[in-house]
Each structure stands twice: as structure tokens, then as C-alpha cells.
Amino acid sequence: MLNFSFENQTRIHFGEGQISAITNEIPRDAKVLVVYGGGSIKNNGVYDQVISALKDHTWFEFSGIEPNPLYDTLMKAQALIKEHDIDYLLAVGGGSVVDGSKFIAAAALYAGDDPWDIVAKQQKVESALPIGVVLTLPATGSETNIGAVVTRDGNKLPFMSSAVRPQFAVLDPAVTLSLSERQISNGVVDAFIHTMEQYLTYSVNAKVQDRFAEGLLQTLIEEGPKALLAESKDDLEVRGNIMWSATMALNGLIGAGVPQDWSTHMIGHELTGTYGIDHARTLSIVLPAVMKVRQQDKHEKLLQYAQRVWHISEGNEEQQIVQAIQLTENFFQSMGMPIRLSDVKLGESDVDVLLEKLELHGMVALGEKQQVTLPVSRQILTTAL
Ligand code: NZQ
Ligand code: ZN
């Protein structure tokens, strides 16, 4: 196992009815900005629960954060923060609202000239307004982690800072019942691929991390399809297991002390930045190709994945790995996800565009051993055609 330091001090309130916990989580004298997206929270009762919990607080609201949040939208919140002297952000939504709130919180206290430098030049974020989260879409893990992704002019770029880790997160599986099938699938597959990015590298004999990761993968394989089936889609236990898996997949626990890949995500971000494809749908296209192209480098872990996650025992090592990749693709397809660039109507000419974007963003040595150079990314994208 590699050396590591681990912390995750986000307090979690899990379960039905837990939105009321925000009353005591946010200091009574705080001036709160409730941040949300396109309005789903007004249709499913979440907004009403939030304002009821904040009835004795002073609060304002900022809405309109779009999926894959845009820098220009997020910067509009700054005027409101100054005008009302806001000192607490409550993000109510999915990963885009949480990520957007993290950027708003960091930009509000940013000492430099241009907050875009936080992502473009990876300027260190030393401080940020405190953030609380009411999560409505289990997927990204953003509700307890230190990452966020922001887009400007087709450039989708991440930043990380412990200053933006939420102070608390409410995970109420009941609020996920209003999700569309597409968003349920996106969430399950995003969480699955977060786990894979931290698991499918090379072995460092980190047994706890490996077995936690395998447990998350198996839970998502078991529960994901149930959330789409008529007879089980409203089952709160199914929703709860998916929600907790998504948080656990990217809260730092399974990634502590192990090598991490993230090349699928970095290539996927270019697909979203350039063509607007949903985050998780870029990943379900890229990951199978990463598994195929990097089969030799990842041989040991791919075999472990085949045997422990899919219980494959027939055939030689090579055949077991090929079967595991096939089963992974079948799982994504059973969740209604695309697995090839052609599934989202992209072809060979788009590969050149994507490679230019990767180069522009300095994504030229990705993966657990920095071996995913531009020629390897080309091979991955060509394999995904
Ligand atoms: O905007 P509203 O109206 O709320 O609708 C949203 C949005 O249209 C809707 N939705 C959310 N909860 C709902 C709901 N609809 C009905 N009922 C509910 N309960 O779902 C749509 C998509 O929401 P979004 O927040 O964009 O989805 P997701 O949670 O998948 O977040 C994706 C963003 O997170 C980033 C992605 O790159 C992308 O920008 N990521 C953040 C990460 C992190 N911070 O650690 C890691 C991830 O890998 C990812 O990169
Ligand atoms: Zn992701």
C-alpha cells in the first residue's frame, strides 16, 4: 500500500426526512444563499422542505445552474453575495449544482484578479465560503469531496481544494425518486467508473481498498438495473444503496493509498466540453476502450476484477479478461448507456478534434503511470469508434 493521509470531515445525514437537519447545521446568524439548478427541486418538494427548514434563517436564492456548470453563470452569483453579505452556501441539486457552488464559494474569497485562473492556471484556493449540500442526484460524490469541474467556452476543467469540501451533506434517497431514467443511469455508471478509476490500475496489495471497491462495483451492478425496473424503481432501499455507493465511490476512502488512473474522465471531459454529451455517457464510451488498449498494463487488476466482481473462472487469463470487458459493456448497455462514439453519432474526424483539446489542456500524460500520451489517447478513441 502507498503512504497516505486521509480525512473527510463532511457530516452526513442519510435517510428519509433528513432535509430538516439543515436547520441545526447552518448557524442561525448566517446569511445563506440557497443555490440550485433548473428547477427540478420546485417540482419534487425538495425546495419546500429546504425553505421550511430555513424558516428561522436569513436566506436568499440563486438558481439556473446548468448541467456541466458554466463559469459565466457561476460568476453571476458574486454580485448577490456582495449585495447581501452572504456567508454560507446551501447547494441543493446534483453534481453540477454542488460543483458550481464550490466554484462560487472559492471565487467569493479569491484574492487573485481572475477566478478563472483557479481552473485554468490551477491557482491554489486557500479559502472559500462554507458549503452545505442537499444532494438530489447520486453520482459524482461531490457532496463530500474536494473536487469540482467548471466549463467555459468548451473548456471543461477541474480544480481541487479542501477549502471547498462541504461541511455537511443530506442524502435522502426519497428525493431521487423524481429522477429520469437517464439521470438514474448516468449516476450509477458515473459512480461505477469513479470506482474503476481508483481500482483498475496495478496492485499495491491494498486489500481493504480493493475489497471496498469490489463491494461498491457489485452493489452498483446489482442495484442499478433495479432502479430502472417498474417493480423496483420506487424502492427506497434500492435508491439508498445506490446513493451511498455513489458517495463512498468518491469520498477519498477507496482512493487512499492506491494508484489512480482518471484517464477515462479526462478524455470524457473533452467529449462533454466539445459536444455537450452527458458526463457519465462519455465515460461509458471511453472506459471499455481504456480496458482494451491498456490490457497489458492493467492485466493483474483486470484479472482480479474478472474473478472477484464478475465471478469468472472459466477459460485462460486472457479469455477471462475479455469476458469481463464484455460484461462491463453489457452492464452499461443494460443501463441504457452508449458504449461507442458511433452511439452518439461521432466518428473518425472527431478524434482529431478531441486530441487537439487534450493537447490544449495539457492532458498529455494521463493514467496511473502517466503512460496515456496523446498517441495512446488516439488509440483509445479509435478503439471506441
Ligand atoms: O437543474 P435541475 O432542474 O435540478 O435538473 C437536474 C439536471 O438537469 C436533474 N436533476 C437533479 N436531481 C434531480 C433532477 N431531476 C429530477 N429529480 C431530481 N431529484 O438532473 C440533471 C443533471 O444534473 P447534474 O447535476 O448535471 O448531474 P450530475 O450529478 O451527474 O453532475 C454532473 C456534473 O458533475 C461533474 C461532471 O463533470 C458534471 O459537470 N463531476 C463532478 C465530480 C466531483 N465534483 O467530484 C466528479 C465527477 O466525475 C464529475 O466530473
Ligand atoms: Zn465522474
Task: Report what the structure shows.
The protein is an alpha/beta fold. The protein folds into 2 domains: 11-174, Rossmann fold, CATH 3.40.50; 184-383, Dehydroquinate synthase-like - alpha domain (Dehydroquinate synthase-like, alpha domain, Up-down Bundle). The chain is built from 16 helices and 8 strands. The strands form 2 sheets. The chain has a 6-stranded parallel sheet, with helices on both faces. Helix 12 (279-293) packs antiparallel against helix 14, helix 12 (279-293) crosses helix 16 (374-383) and helix 13 (299-308) crosses helix 14. It is globular. Zinc ion (ZN) is lined by residues 140, 190, 194, 265, 279.
Task: Report a brief summary of the structure.
With 385 residues, this protein is an alpha/beta fold. It folds into two domains: 11-174, Rossmann fold (3-Layer(aba) Sandwich); 184-383, Dehydroquinate synthase-like, alpha domain. It has helices spanning 22-25, 40-43, 46-53, 71-75, 77-84, 95-108, 117-120, 181-199, 207-226, 236-249, 263-275, 279-293, 299-308, 317-334, 348-360, 374-383; strands at 11-14, 31-36, 58-62, 88-93, 131-135, 147-152, 155-160, 168-171.
> Span from first to last CA?
36 Å
Q: Give the structural class.
A: alpha/beta
How does the major sheet shape up?
6 strands, parallel
Number of domains: 2
Chain-averaged pLDDT: 98
The sequence of SSEs as H and E is: EHEHHEHHEHHEEEEHHHHHHHHH
**Range of helix content:** 40-55%
Q: What is the C-level CATH assignment of the largest domain?
A: Mainly Alpha
**β-strand number:** 8
Question: Radius of gyration from the CA trace?
Answer: 20 Å
Secondary structure tally, helices = 16
From the spread of the alpha carbons, the general shape counts as globular
The fourth-level CATH homologous superfamily of the largest domain is Dehydroquinate synthase-like - alpha domain
